[in-house]
Automatic annotation (TrEMBL):
Record protein name field: Ribose 1,5-bisphosphate isomerase
Entry-linked InterPro entries: IF-2B-related (IPR000649), IF_2B-like_C (IPR042529), Initiation_fac_2B_a/b/d (IPR011559), M1Pi_N (IPR027363), NagB/RpiA_transferase-like (IPR037171), R15Pi (IPR005250)
Keywords: Carbohydrate metabolism, Isomerase
Recorded GO MF terms: ribose 1,5-bisphosphate isomerase activity
Record-linked HAMAP family: R15P_isomerase (MF_02230)
């Protein structure tokens, strides 16, 4: 994390940043909601005596939050949204504008996921079988929308090592009444012939339509294309990465080796170097559609929506 002066960052901001960093807070929409509320908490806690000092504290808090998960673009997009409407001639006016902007963003988040779910539900037919990877609340919203329409679904759920986020997905789908089969990650190709749609989420989507998602997504997409199984990405517009040209320009987070192997027993297998990338990049040619709350788009046209929402290449307000 950025070494911002401790006096400038509220205790609540530090706590939320730590929870995001350790994945106690996970899922792009949940992270975005927490980040926006953290800025509101910073505004409430600030004892700045001048507008410039208040804004400096807000920028310091934003930098601490943004550094926790470099690949999850929903986080900086949330911060960008809140900063967009921060204005005022006094500290109190600035404080109130932060609160209002954060509240508005969180309200739009709630609506966005519901709207996305309705769009995604229309791709699913009664009796369809899906395959999922990792845990995505946007994917779950699509399935929930389909179930509410009276459609009966079944699912192959990849366990998604090393943190087994697939277990979370399996539980959520089971609670919806979906018939769930949990499979090991390496068995995905074996069962793709029985699948009607592969549904994945995204942590970021680049301007060319590349999907940056949990490690293993790109391999699954290649296998799905080979099997002729459509692969659909469900992602709110907060996942669009306005500072990218291609997916390969997005920084990929490397997680700690302790998620893969116990450091105390590593010597038993020769102390190998451990690489634990959290995400990979799926080129747009392997993705059939990207579902957002604004509708369904072919990957190649996502740049048009991105420019409409964010402009060409916005500057991070906390970098000014």
């Amino acid at each position: 994390m950025t070494d911002a002066p401790e006096r400038e960052v509220a205790e609540e901001v530090s706590r939320i940043a730590e929870d995001i960093d350790t994945m106690e807070i996970r899922g792009a929409a949940t992270i975005a909601d927490a980040a926006a509320r953290a800025l509101a908490a910073q505004a409430d806690a600030s004892e700045a005596e001048s507008p410039s000092a208040f804004l400096d504290e807000l920028r310091a808090a934003a930098r601490v939050l943004c550094d926790t998960r470099p690949t999850a673009v929903s986080l900086p997009n949330a911060l960008r949204y809140v900063f967009r409407d921060v204005r005022g001639a006094t500290v109190e006016e600035l404080r109130e504008s932060v609160r209002e902007s954060a509240d508005e963003f969180c309200e739009r988040l709630d609506t966005a996921q519901h709207d996305l779910g309705r769009v995604g539900a229309n791709r699913l037919r009664d009796g369809d079988t899906i395959m999922t990877h990792c845990h995505s609340t946007d994917v779950l919203a699509c399935v929930e929308g389909a179930v509410e329409q009276g459609k009966s679904l079944s699912a192959y759920v990849k366990e998604t090592r090393p943190r087994n986020q697939g277990h979370i997905t399996a539980e959520a789908l089971s609670e919806m009444g979906v018939d769930v089969t949990l499979i090991v990650d390496s068995a995905a190709r074996r069962y793709l012939n029985d699948v009607d749609h592969v549904l994945v989420g995204a942590d970021s989507i680049a301007a060319d339509g590349s999907v940056i998602n949990k490690i293993g997504t790109s391999g699954l997409a290649v296998n799905a294309r080979d099997r002729g199984t459509p692969i659909v990405c469900a992602a709110q517009t907060i996942k669009l990465h306005p500072g990218t040209l291609t997916g390969h320009t997005v920084e990929i987070e490397m997680r700690d080796e302790s998620e893969v192997i116990d450091p105390e027993t590593a010597s038993e297998i020769g102390d190998p170097e451990v690489l634990n990338p959290a995400f990979d990049v799926t080129p747009p040619r392997y993705v059939d559609a990207i579902i957002t709350e604004r509708g369904q788009f072919p990957p190649e046209s996502i740049v048009t929506l991105m420019r409409e929402l964010f402009g060409e290449s916005p500057i991070q307000p906390w970098e000014l």
